[in-house]
Amino acid sequence: MKKQEFLNKLDDLISKVKTGVLTTVDENNRPHTRWMSPIILRKRPGFIFTVTSKTFTKKHEIEENPHTEWMIQSRDLREIMNVRGETTIIENASLRSELLEEISDRLNVFWKLCDNEEDIVVLETAIDEISYYKPMDCLKEKVTF
C-alpha cells in the first residue's frame, strides 16, 4: 500500500471502531496504556487527534517524552494498525471545540473525570510510521512517513 492508502485505511478503521489505545512513557521509561477516542480530521491528514485534561498524567508524560504509539483494531481483530508518532499538546479553543463536536458522545467516562471544559487540551499525533496487520491472512505491511 502507498502512504495515502495507509491513511485512508486508518481513517476508515477509526471511523468504524471509534476507539484506540494510546501508549505514552513516563519519566522512568515505563509505558502507560489507555483507551482513548481518536479522530482524523479531513483537513489535517497525517495526524491523529484526541482530547485529554491538563490534570491527567498523560499530558505530563507527553510533555516529557512526545513519542507515542496508538493501536487501532477492528472489533473482530481481523485488522490491527499500530501508529507511531510524536504527540503535541495544543491549547486552542477553536480546535478543542471542533473535536468535542465530533467526539463528545464517545467521552462518557472522560466527562466523569473532567467536568471543566477549560481544562481540556488537544493531543495531536504527527504520524511517523504505520504498521498494518491482518492476522488471519498472515499479512503485515509498514510505511514510514
Summarize, please:
With 145 residues, this protein is of the alpha+beta class. The chain is built from four helices and seven strands; from the N terminus they run αβββαββααββ. The chain has a single domain, classed as Electron Transport, Fmn-binding Protein, Chain A (Pnp Oxidase, Chain A).
Notes on the protein architecture:
- This protein has 145 residues and is an alpha+beta fold.
- It has a single domain, classed as Pnp Oxidase, Chain A.
- 28% of the residues lie in helices and 40% in strands.
- Strands 1, 2, 3, 4, 5, 6 and 7 form a 7-stranded antiparallel beta sheet that branches.
- Strand 4 and strand 5 form a beta hairpin.
Write the layout of secondary structure elements.
Blueprint: H1 3-17, E1 20-25, E2 31-36, E3 47-53, H2 57-64, E4 67-73, E5 80-90, H3 93-103, H4 108-113, E6 120-134, E7 139-144
Antiparallel strand pairs: 1-2, 1-4, 3-6, 4-5, 5-6, 6-7
CATH class wording: Mainly Beta
Strand percentage lies at: 35-45%
Structural class: alpha+beta
**Contiguous uncertain segments of 5+ residues:** none
Integer average pLDDT: 94
Work out the helicity level. Answer: 25-40%
List how many beta strands DSSP finds. Answer: 7
* Element pattern in H and E: HEEEHEEHHEE
Task: Write down the oligomeric state.
Answer: single chain
Which features does this protein show?
Pnp Oxidase, Chain A, seven-stranded antiparallel sheet, alpha+beta, globular, 40% strand
